[in-house]
Amino acid sequence: MDLSQREAAAQTRLEPVWFDYLQGGAGEERTVRDNRDAWGRWSLRPHYLRDVRGTSAATTLLGTPSPAPMVVAPTAMHRLFHPDGELATAAGAAAAGMIYTVSMAAMTSLEDIAATAPGAPRWMQVYMFADRGITKACCERAAAAGYAALVLTIDSPVTARNLRNERNGFNVPAGLTLPNLAPPDAHDLDIWGIVGAYDPAVTPDDIAIVSAWGGGLPVVVKGLVRGDDARRAVDAGAAAVAVSNHGGRQLDTCIATARALPEVVDAVAGDAEVYVDGGVRAGIDVVKALALGARAVLVGRPVIWGLATDGAAGVESVLRELTDDTARALALCGVTSPHDVTRDLLT
């Protein structure tokens, strides 16, 4: 089943309100569309007359081996899409060998996710909440549970409007909670009152604070689309930055990530790894991201399509398909490794 078929199958299996929540974005969803279209505006200039036997998509990300330049992006509330939720996502990502970035807004505790695939690589996404004790506790728990990095999402100083959710009266079914927003033994805590109570005063100084809360774990700063902001993050200690507009879910008409990526790469100048998300749907998109200077892409919605259709097996299938497609695209471009991709492959 290819990704377009996965998307269509997910739509038939999910309640319309959940599918709209997954697919939708802020405002008129122009950025959602532009993210996808922007990759197609770059054309490839492949090399030929080259030996591409033994082509591999394998790489390392913050020192962790990965079968492809790809990470499972943090996405919230997986039990809306499959009864096993994040446990199935973790199992599928582990089977494919991919790093899974667990959302702070997961419907499964980060400890239970770690226990599902104990040897698999995992990162933990965090938001800085107005009650900073919530974020501090999550960082401490992630470090104790063996997570290898913290992904600080910084593009949500306030909560955006989502017109689809407003029209649908989106709400989460009773009995489903967000256990990473509170200690496991917390009682009578208004979880849904916490959601969206982000700290509007996050600065580069908070990167070191988050790392310290996590016992020195490396921090990936996610949500940057400008070179100057990326440079500030790296100078403040970020181990990596992720070019992201939150999949079009925060600021509508925000620049597409494929367009923002080159400026960020140039500003970082090799001092940190650079990742990108938004609209990646094929191996050629991954190769284009590499050519623009990214170390890897983050994949969000396609993973959830796999989860919705076939649980853990669907997640694994989506990730393996993208891995194979990336290796095929590399070979067709005349290169045998992600590390051999250069910007002159694009026009």
From TrEMBL:
<dbReference type="GO" id="GO:0005737">
    <property type="term" value="C:cytoplasm"/>
</dbReference>
<dbReference type="InterPro" id="IPR012133">
    <property type="entry name" value="Alpha-hydoxy_acid_DH_FMN"/>
</dbReference>
<dbReference type="InterPro" id="IPR000262">
    <property type="entry name" value="FMN-dep_DH"/>
</dbReference>
<dbReference type="InterPro" id="IPR008259">
    <property type="entry name" value="FMN_hydac_DH_AS"/>
</dbReference>
<protein>
    <submittedName>
        <fullName>Unannotated protein</fullName>
    </submittedName>
</protein>
<dbReference type="GO" id="GO:0016491">
    <property type="term" value="F:oxidoreductase activity"/>
</dbReference>
<feature type="domain" description="FMN hydroxy acid dehydrogenase">
    <location>
        <begin position="1"/>
        <end position="347"/>
    </location>
</feature>
<keyword id="KW-0285">Flavoprotein</keyword>
<dbReference type="Pfam" id="PF01070">
    <property type="entry name" value="FMN_dh"/>
</dbReference>
<comment type="similarity">
    <text>Belongs to the FMN-dependent alpha-hydroxy acid dehydrogenase family.</text>
</comment>
<dbReference type="InterPro" id="IPR013785">
    <property type="entry name" value="Aldolase_TIM"/>
</dbReference>
<keyword id="KW-0560">Oxidoreductase</keyword>
<keyword id="KW-0288">FMN</keyword>
<dbReference type="GO" id="GO:0010181">
    <property type="term" value="F:FMN binding"/>
</dbReference>
<dbReference type="InterPro" id="IPR037396">
    <property type="entry name" value="FMN_HAD"/>
</dbReference>
